[in-house]
Amino acid sequence: MSEVVVISQHNLQNEVRYGAGQTLITDEPASIGGDDAGPDPYTLLLAALGTCISMTVTLYARRKQWPLDEVTVRLRQNRIHAKDCQECSKDTEGYVHRIERAVSFKGDLSEEQLARLKEISHKCPVHKTLTAPIVISELGE
Questions:
Q1: What range defines the domain where residue 13 resides?
Q2: Is 135 domain-assigned?
Q3: What whole-number percentage of the chain has pLDDT above 90?
Q4: Over the stretch 122-134, which tens digit does the pLDDT of each residue have?
Q5: pLDDT of res. 141
Q6: Is 5 helix (H, G, I), strand (E, B) or coil?
Q7: Residue 92 above 70 pLDDT?
Q8: Residues 19 and 53 in one domain
Q9: Would the CA dihedral through 25, 27, 29, 35 be positive or negative?
Q10: Domain co-membership, 117 together with 53
Q11: Are residues 46 and 35 in the same domain?
């Protein structure tokens, strides 16, 4: 199991500690009071999803020995009224967080290979996590 430790710094900046002594800084844009010194939380969320999609597809293509040269994942996130969500069930109320994605591939790939990679791109573990119920509980000391 991976662990991340977040320690507030100054203003809205935080130091994120992970792995074996690795760190990164997160922040908010200046337009909402941050210093724009690093990615904001939603950018990190999109980066996690995009990275997972890219890695999942790359590992699959590698295992199949397909000539995949590059994966590009474009992501956008916004919040919309549930009543405006065409994909949502009719009993959803309030707001829905919507992530839009576009995945493209470069390489000498057949139409069948491209179609399969597109399918695989929906099977990354972070995608599965974000589309499943999530429980957040208190960490034991």
A1: 1-39
A2: no
A3: 79
A4: 999 999 999 898 8
A5: 67
A6: strand
A7: no
A8: no
A9: negative
A10: yes
A11: no
Provide the 8-state DSSP code for 117: H
The encoded tokens of residue 124 equal 């990354």
Residue pair 124/56 in contact (Cβ under 8 Å)? The answer is: yes
3-class secondary-structure state, position 45: helix
Distance from C-alpha of 135 to C-alpha of 141, rounded to nearest angstrom = 18
What gap in Å lies between CA 110 and CA 81, rounded to an integer? 40
pLDDT tens readout for residues 53-79: 999 999 999 999 999 999 999 999 988
Write the single-letter amino acid at 124: C
Same domain assignment for residues 49 and 107:
yes
Q: Where are the alpha helices (DSSP H) in the chain?
A: 41-64, 111-120, 125-130
48 assigned to some structural domain: yes
Structure-token pair, residue 15: 């130091």
List the CATH number of the domain containing 92: 3.30.300.20
Look at residue 29 in the predicted model and tell me its pLDDT. Answer: 95
7 and 52 part of one domain: no
Are 121 and 102 in contact by the 8 Å Cβ rule? The answer is no
Domain count, the chain: 2
Which residues on neighbouring strands pair with residue 78, listed in sequence order?
A: 98
